[in-house]
Amino acid sequence: MHLAEKAVIESLEEVLAENELEYEYISKNDDAINAEEIAIQEALNRLEVKEQRIKEAYENEVDTLEEYKQNKLRLKLERDELLADAEKLRQQMNQCATAPTKEEIMRQVAHVHEILSDPNLDYEIKGNALRNIVKDIVFDRSNGHLYIHFYIS
Questions:
Q1: Helix (H, G, I), strand (E, B) or coil at 153
Q2: Residues 133, 151 contacting (CB under 8 angstroms)
Q3: What would the pLDDT profile of 83-133 be if each residue is shown by its tens digit?
Q4: β-pairing, 145-152 with 23-25?
Q5: Tell me: the pLDDT tens digits for 33-45?
């Protein structure tokens, strides 16, 4: 086990033993919701193109009336689903983002500690788990001290 890895695990053990953690709360809804909103809008735009194509296929007698009705119904269901997703997203944006409870935070720290302590897991998995709660790690060379800055989102 590397020295830095050992120091991080010890820090997590200290947090769990004291049941106290200084952390920064970062609301995760902004970027994630904006990206989701853009994806939904793009899907709706693609749906309009598909609707135009099925209409043209019917008008040019490529599709029968029955095929046109089926395609139109399928696209309507897809549009309804996308609009429902957009509405859920708006509701999420309107709800105040509440910080997680102390129990949820400690559970998250314990889970990351469990992952880091498992010798059978590779460093990529351990690194991803650690990045879920650690904003940055600073080594003060003059004091030989490692500072770990936690965040919760």
A1: coil
A2: yes
A3: 998 888 887 776 655 677 888 889 999 999 999 998 888 888 888 889 888
A4: parallel
A5: 778 888 999 999 9
Q: Which amino acid is at 19?
A: N
- Strands, E assignment, 46-109: none
Strand order in the sheet with 23-25: 23-25, 145-152, 134-140
- Annotated domain spans of the chain: 3-27+99-152, 29-94
Distance CA 8, CA 112 (A): 11
Say how far apart CA 8 and CA 23 lie, in whole Å: 15
pTM exceeds 0.85, yes or no = no
Cα radius of gyration (the chain) = 25
User: Sign of torsion, CA 70 76 80 82?
Assistant: positive
**Number of neighbours of residue 31 by Cβ within 10 angstroms:** 9
